[in-house]
Amino acid sequence: MNQYRVGIIGATGMVGQRFITLLKDHPWFKVTCLAASARSAGKTYKEAMGDRWAFDWPIPDYAADMVIVDASDIDAVGEKVDFCFCAVDMKKDEIRALEENYAKHEIPIISNNSACRGVEDVPMVVPEINADHLAVIETQRKRLGSKYGFIAVKPNCSIQSYVPALTPLLEFEPTQVSVCTYQAISGASKTFKTWPEMVDNVIPYIGGEDEKSELEPLKLWGHLEDKGNGPVIVNAAEPVIGAQCLRVACSDGHMAAVSVNFRKKVTKEQILEKWANFETEAQRLELPSAPKPFLQYFEDPSRPQTRLDRDFQNGFGVSIGRLREDKIFDWKFVCLSHNTIRGAAGGGMLTAELLCRKGYIVAKK
User: What UniProt keywords are attached to this protein's entry (predicted)?
Assistant: First the structure.
């Protein structure tokens, strides 16, 4: 594979920091630009971070002395990169305008943000689930008037704990899903040091999270349809999902308790077989970050546990446990994923690997 020059827009935030860590020794990607707000521009990364570095390990050497570029200076960023990851903290309309501006300047964007997730010609991708949705990029390029530039997004971190477990079961036609997620504080870009109120606490509300958890899976499970200007994504009609999302006192790792009804009768043995043998496009393409296996199931009813199992497959895998019959629904189980790796920066990185392997991103030099 070619070596690709990579920019990180929003490099000083929690997800930006995770990108910097994950990309340190990546075999395909070399970080050549760190971009952030005007107040950080012109400073070295370590100067701009001060005491805000969120992890126990130091800032990687390659990034510490890199001078930050103003994210609004698209030409300056564009000279240094083949594509960018975007994880900025701005209003949604501002994020969409920024990302579309980058795409129009022929800079592909892989976004951690939610601003473009609902757009029908923007692929929202989990590489193991819906790699075929990348086909809408050509439709998007027509709309934006770009030749190379586009936006691809990753879905909300909360759904990446339970959607991977439901996907192998789609042939049994799930009709109703009830899910409650227990989400770590890093999902709010916080640590216990910066958010001491979360110690010994649970908050039963995360703004907008219930709605994202109910709607975004339907886009992942949607189909492609040509409405005249090229293919777009049409959301799946089922299952109907009801979600409640809670913030809990964990540093990393989102857990989900799932109950599901199926139109077709399915046994426990069939469900376990589907999970055990779920092979993915990311594995077949041998993407560097693709977990193999993607899913693991625990017979021990006390697992998965956040602290013990969030780092399965370097944080890219999903853990499942406690599959049992339900008195209201057909089946219930629990799932766990690492929210800032699989659910955020790592998911974006894996999507970028897929885009490069499929030829949507090209190395300019």
Answer: Oxidoreductase
Scored b (16 or more CB within 10 A) or e, 101-137 reads ebbeeebbbbbbbbbbbebbbbbbbbbbbbbebbbbb
State how far the Cα of 197 lies from the Cα of 93, in Å rounded to an integer: 31
Which H or E run includes 111?
Answer: strand 109-111
How many CB atoms are located within 10 Å of the residue 343 CB? Answer: 29
- Write out the residue limits of the CATH 3.40.50.720 domain(s) in the chain: 4-156+345-357
Concatenated DSSP letters of 265-309: ---HHHHHHHHHT---HHHHTT-TT--SSSEEEESSTT---HHHH
Give Rg (Cα) of the chain. Answer: 20
Domain 4-156+345-357 has CATH 3.40.50.300: no
Cα–Cα distance measured from residue 227 to residue 149, given in angstroms and rounded to the nearest whole number: 22
The helix/strand/coil state of 260 is strand
Give burial (CB, 10 Å; 0-12/13-18/19+) of 208: exposed
CATH architecture of 159-337: 2-Layer Sandwich (3.30)
Query: Where does CATH 3.30.360.10 sit in the chain?
Result: 159-337
pTM for the full predicted model: 0.96
The reply to whether omega before 291 is within 30° of 0 (cis) is no
Residue in this structure with the two tokens 């609902």, named with its chain if needed: 118
In this predicted model, what pLDDT tens digit does every residue of 243-267 receive, in sequence order? 999 999 999 999 999 999 999 999 9
User: Residue 329's Cα: distance from chain center in Å?
Assistant: 29
Q: Which helix (H) or strand (E) holds 85?
A: strand 83-86
Q: Name residues whose C-beta falls within 8 Å of residue 314's C-beta, 6 or more positions apart in sequence.
A: 289, 291, 341, 346
Burial of 138 (0-12, 13-18, 19+ CB in 10 A): middle
Reported as a single tens digit per residue, the pLDDT across 291-343 is 999 999 999 999 999 999 999 999 999 999 999 999 999 999 999 999 999 99
67 by DSSP, 3-state: which?
strand
Q: Which residues are catalytic?
A: 157, 254
Residue 249 burial (CB < 10 Å; 0-12/13-18/19+)?
middle
CB 133 within 8 A of CB 121: no
